[in-house]
Amino acid sequence: MTTTIMAREAASTPQVIAKQLQSNQAQCERLGEEIRKFNPAFVYIIGRGSSDHAGVFGKYLIETELGVPVCAAAPSVTGLFGKKLKLSNALVLCISQSGRSPDILTQAKAARESGAICVALVNDTSSPLAELADVVLPLQAGEEKAVAATKSYLATLSALLQLVAHWAQNEEFQQALTKLPEQLQQAVEAPAQLTQEFISPLRHCVVLGRSFGYAISREIALKLKEVCGIQAESFSSAEFLHGPVTLVANKLGVIDIDLNDESAKAHRDQIREIASRGAILSQICPVGTDLHPRTAPLTVLQRFYLDIENIAVAMGRDPDSPVGLNKVTQTV
């Protein structure tokens, strides 16, 4: 039985995303057409925390499906250094749960003034960010009470998936999205993948993935820090071999994100190399049937959120009140 707010909200995600995909269908069709007419030279993504991690997923998604280069904003460039960027040929995606952080608002305002198309993927449609944007794509996640974001993060990924599927006019991709809520529910009901026995002894660990696996590794590492107090860092499995791999000689704990996509062979070869050097491995992988390679990572996160909440409770921690964190973080 789910008892914490985090667990209840994470478990509600399949219903949240089912509603979102239906409610945003017409909006994504219109937005896809508008973006094709605008024909952006590049995509510029603005976000902080989990929203920034969603932007990394968006980068892989847009570049692999559409061939349009994507870069992440450095909010301090505008907010602290006062520099205006040349974004007149850009599609700007502003990602925020609350839509209220001052640095995100500053970036969005500057993007609009530069002539970019500014799209807000935001949960609070009455927020200042929603008012600033040219187009609002609602996350439709409802109020998120847990400090550690779960359903809003997954709703951001599904919104990006639906937007890109219509922008690319990819009917197979669009059809795959209709199966996503059921697949997420299968992940909710699936057995745990991460265990307390693996997590509890850790003081440090790394989370390794490749491509889309790396994208979600950033969110997984963040939740290990927030909810369990573990110093966790995410790496591309390829990048990890360029120096940090020396750490595994000390029996470093490694969470392996194993996705069955185009990067699978390269990633698995690298994981075997890391294991041969003494790493202590725990593998997490997609859950569900008939998975599309672009939607499969969401099932990994769906299962992970429930696992890490359960582990935190077993460790005597309160996942609803991570030490030192607030629901809305104000940065400039």
TrEMBL record:
Q: Which GO terms describe its molecular function?
A: carbohydrate derivative binding; glutamine-fructose-6-phosphate transaminase (isomerizing) activity
CDD domains in UniProt: SIS_GlmS_GlmD_1 (cd05008), SIS_GlmS_GlmD_2 (cd05009)
Q: Print the keywords alphabetically.
A: Aminotransferase, Repeat, Transferase
User: What are the SIS domain coordinates in residue numbering?
Assistant: 31-179, 194-322
Under Gene3D superfamilies, the record lists: Glucose-6-phosphate isomerase like protein, domain 1
- Which top-level group of life is the source organism from? Bacteria
Q: Which PROSITE patterns match?
A: SIS
Q: Name one GO biological process term.
A: carbohydrate derivative metabolic process
Q: Which InterPro entries match?
A: GlmS/AgaS_SIS, GlmS/FrlB_SIS, SIS_dom, SIS_dom_sf
Documented EC number(s): 2.6.1.16
Tell me where the transmembrane regions lie. Answer: none
Identify the Pfam families for this entry.
Answer: SIS
Checking NCBIfam families in the record gives: NagB_SO3506 (NF046059)
How is this protein named in the record? Glucosamine--fructose-6-phosphate aminotransferase
From which organism does this entry originate?
Answer: Aliiglaciecola lipolytica E3
Organismal lineage: Bacteria, Pseudomonadati, Pseudomonadota, Gammaproteobacteria, Alteromonadales
Which gene specifies this protein's sequence? glmS
